[in-house]
Amino acid sequence: QVQLVESGGGLVQAGGSLTLSCAASGRPFSSIGQGWFRQAPGKEREFVAAFSWNFGSTYYADSVKGRFTISRDNAKNTVYLQMNSLKPEDTAVYYCAADRRGAYFDSSSYRYWGQGTQVTVSS
After folding, report:
1. Structure confidence by residue, pLDDT tens digits, 1-25
2. What value, to the nearest 5°, has the Cα angle with vertex 62 and ends 67 and 84?
3. Under the phi-then-psi rule, with left for phi > 0, alpha for psi from -120 to 50, and beta for the rest, what region is 11?
4. Concatenated DSSP letters for 23-48?
5. How far apart are CA 119 and CA 107, in angstroms?
6. Is 88 helix (H, G, I), strand (E, B) or coil?
7. What are 57-65's contacts with CB under 8 Å, separation 24+?
8. pLDDT, tens only, 71-100
């Protein structure tokens, strides 16, 4: 079993920055694939960012490429999502996911999910 706890969400003005954290317990994060997804009101959950299987590469949704960065600290068993140049359309609940068994962009590929953290970007 893996437990994921996100933190770092909040209210920020457009153009601002936030860093989300996802702390894992139960298994070393270095051994399982991780990603970030988000879900805005009335919309389906969508892919944001993920690591490749060997952690040698990262993947991003086109809508966040160049603005968001996924990173990890294996010693702390924590994954981060640095979000810069935030836009109102980035407003959503952000979820950390782990233990990927399929395509990185498919939410059904991930076995474990955090409870989510709200990010609100005001214009």
Report:
1. 889 999 999 999 999 999 999 999 8
2. 10
3. beta
4. EEESS-GGGS-EEEEEE-TTS--EEE
5. 19
6. helix
7. 59/104, 59/105, 61/105, 63/89, 64/90
8. 999 889 899 999 999 999 999 999 999 989
Q: Which helix (H) or strand (E) holds 16?
A: none
SS3 123: coil
- Sorted by sequence, the CB contacts under 8 Å of residue 58 that are 6+ apart come out as 49, 50, 51, 52, 69, 70
In the prediction, which pLDDT does 123 show? 94
Q: What is the pLDDT of residues 27-62, one digit of tens each?
A: 766 667 789 999 999 999 999 999 987 777 899 999
Cβ burial of 24 (10 Å; 0-12, 13-18, 19+) is buried
| CA distance readout (Å), 53 to 31, 35, 76, 80 | 9, 11, 19, 17
